[in-house]
Amino acid sequence: MTAQLVARRLVGTRQWRQWLLVTVEIVIALNAVGGALYGLAGAEDVPRKWLEGTPFDSYLVPSLILLVAVGGGMGAAAAAHLVNHRLAPEISVAAGSTLMGWIVVQVLLIGPNGGVSWLQPAMLVAGGLVAALGWQLRVARAASGAPAHGGARGGS
Question: CATH top-level class for 3-144?
Fold first, then answer.
C-alpha cells in the first residue's frame, strides 16, 4: 500500500469516527442538560437520602456541575468537531474523561446510600467511548500527516 492510499483510508475512517463521536457527544450533552434542569427544578423523584454523607444538602450544586462540566463539555466538544477546530479531538478526550470522573465520583458519593441507576455504567462506557474516539482521531490526524489545525475553517 502506498502512503497516499493509507492516508486516504485514515481520512475516511476519521470521518465516520468523527460523525459517530459528534452524535454521541450531542446525545450525552442533551441528557446532561435534561438531568441538570430536572435537578435544578428540585429532582422531585430522586430521594434526598442519596445526598447523606455528601458535601451537598440539595441537588442544586451537583445539577450545576452536571450542566456546565458534563453538558457544556460535551456540547463544546461536538461544536469543536462541527467547526473543524484544531483541538476538537483533545476537547473530546477531556469531555469523555470529565464524564467518567463525574460518574466515578457520583457512585462513590451516593452509591452507599442506594443511589444506583443503569444510567451510571452506561454513561461511564459512553464517556470512555468519547475519550477513546477523540484519542483515535488525534492519532489518525497525526498518522495522516494532516495539520493539527482546521485549515480554512476553525483553525484558531
Answer: mainly alpha
Give the separation between CA 27 and CA 122, rounded to whole angstroms.
12
What HEC string does 134-156 produce? Answer: HHHHHHHHHHHCCCCCCCCCCCC
Neighbours of 1 (CB within 10 A): 7
Alpha carbon distances (Å) from 106 to 18, 54, 56, 112: 29, 10, 12, 10
pLDDT 10s per residue in the chain (156 long)? 565 554 455 455 678 889 999 999 999 999 999 999 999 999 999 999 999 989 999 999 999 999 999 999 999 999 999 999 999 999 999 999 999 999 999 999 998 788 788 999 999 999 999 999 999 999 988 887 776 655 434 444
Entry pTM: 0.84
